[in-house]
Amino acid sequence: MVLEEHIAIWHQARIEDLTSNSRKSTYTQGSFMRDRQQSPLSDTQPNEESLIIEAERTPEQLEMANKIPFNFETCFQGRMGMYGELQRVADYLDAHEGWFCRCAKPMKAEPLGENGYILTIGRFGSFGYEVEPKMGVVLLPSQEGVYLMHSVPVPDYTPPGYDIDYQASMTLLEVPTEEIDWAVASKQRAKIAQFPSLVTQVEWQLQLRVTVNFPKFIYKLPPSLIQNTGDRLLAQIVRQISPRLTYKVQSDFHRSLNLPLPPKQSRKLEG
What is the pTM of this model? Predict the structure, then answer.
């Protein structure tokens, strides 16, 4: 089966899941966390065994530790407001080849096929171990008002000890300007004759899981410390990248239409 057929089947399955639940993502934080693969080394609760350093472990324990990867994961949801009717915003998002690479900076973004991109995210690490993640992502066209994004393998590239699973959904909601507090305040301050009568709320949520096979020296540390540090670092990466990308996309859209930029209150990130 070719890649396009795999993507089409996956996309239809996700649409059915989303629409069967009033178009809300089935990946809630609770269910996502319950789906985690648990292992002796991914237990986040400190115990006596987790505090054993390498010198006190048996050869069998060390051999097992050096083979079991860690799973780090985080979930976020957010929103940004765009002045204008829903179809105008949808047309802009659909033409992502015109804004994605530009707005992704300082990340490096390269086109991948018709709807995909290769992202080099930057260098991150802890405990003396660093990695420069690279991932492929596909932005699928809207179906039934839902946009889906997910990770795909990068051609001719083998990640050095890590694997990224990224899933995201995005919906558009058209709302009269008078029903949004920040939009009303902006309209009162605006110095333009024709202020947009509609605002399109872009609401999204994402789930990110990273599996890492660490070098042996990392396993000298308590597993709970590694797990908690990795989960926290992953969340920090999202908190660093997502608001910056949101702001750039929002700015790019309004600049292209010669509209004022919505205030900071129009952008929201929760996780």
Answer: 0.73
